[in-house]
Amino acid sequence: MEERRYLKWYNKVGYGAGDIAGNVVYALLSAFVMIFLTDTVGMNAGIVGTLIAVSKLFDGVSDIFFGSLIDKTHSRMGKARPWMFYGYFGCAVCLVAIFCIPADIGATAQYAWFFIAYTLLNAGFYTANNIAYSALTALVTKNNHERVQMGSIRFMFAFGTSMLIQTVTVGLVARFGGGAAAWRTVAVIYAVIGVITNTISVFSVRELSPEELAEDEQAPSEEVKEEKYSLADAFGLLIRNKYYLMICGSYILMQIYSATLNMGIYYMTYILKNANLLGVFSWAINIPMIIGLLFTPTLVAKFGGMYKLNLLGYTLGTAGRLGVVAAGYLGSVPLMLACTAVAAIGMSPLQGDMNALIATCSEYTYLTAGKRVDGTMYSCTSLGTKLGGGIGTALAGWLLALSGYVGAAAQQAPSVLTMLHIMYLWIPMGINLVITLVLSRLNVEQAVEEERKRHHGNGSDKRI
């Protein structure tokens, strides 16, 4: 019997457009906030890195908190869509505020301004918006193939937006005259684009009712009406699911990887002597990634699931990044670009099926604990994006400060150049290797299938 379909093509495309909104925030911050703060505002890279790291202390709690709130929300718009819609207006304001640090308020006040705006954005508004956006995958369809398609489409928009921002931002800042005022103008433009695309995404889909979500499930009917659990209970449900922990760890590492590559603006400026090469390398990453995402739904079906495809893909991704290391020391930019593309192709399946993987992980909790915690489960996407991106950016700040980096200097010390090789070549390769090892254990699809058989076998709805 063919699985029921819930979505039209325009629902999927409209939903995917929401990642334009998310990435005008994420890509701008992860690629350019550090160099804006160090070379335009004149802040110390090490202090900025520390402030970002301290800000991350708020993120873990806020992710689970907002995830739990989404699970308990009942409105005409559904559970997730209200948080996605209203949360983004705060994202837009905070994004502009980060690039509007006054020049005449003193250094301490500038650091405080950045910390407050950055924390409000990441621990508050971006969390509410991003968790809600990711949770919609499980709330608008029960068809796993459609979930994979939604994930592939959203990440095509995500990588396309990231590529565009990394390609045009340096030129836009120069066109608007350079300096702090130009950065502010660019931030305002991106914020407006984000508000528009987020609104389109919110109203492109309809959430299924609790009754529709409960059809053909094996949970007690009274649990469908209202989930009753505390924040501590929600946290307990997450940490007892080993697959959630593996997915969350992998997602954090993926975002550290992305943030580290986004810090490549320093590598391009001081090693390759051309800041505009960041855009070229962005094309080498994102075009193959988008191509891979186009084929991910088909490949998932061909491989009979996500497990083998993801593992094989990241093995290729690790080999590709090892090639980038070799090419970097050989000084061959064309070879670096080619190996970068190979790595991106290998990494694309996990990006495309991540939302479906999390939905399967949420189903595992449902089958073993009898609780539907889709919003809380999808907190790993927001947590991973913010914590991983923040750690990656903070790490870059610390390593730059440790190596003796001097903002806006025409020449950097040899220790800085050595550190830039470590940051751009070695760290991404090491991260891919660790993710590959984690994926070798992440067969949640098989675990869910075994749980289904167990429940059908004993004819009971009893939960662990």
- Contiguous runs where pLDDT drops below 50 for at least 5 residues: 219-226, 460-464
Overall radius of gyration = 22 Å
CATH topology: Growth Hormone, Chain: A
- Helix content percent band: over 70%
Major beta-sheet overview: none
Report on this model:
The chain has 464 residues and is an all-alpha fold. It has one domain (14-203, 226-458): Growth Hormone, Chain: A. Helix content is 79%, strand content 0%. It is built from 20 helices and no strands. Helix 2 packs parallel to helix 7 and helix 7 (144-175) packs antiparallel against helix 8 (179-202). The radius of gyration is 22 Å and the shape is globular.
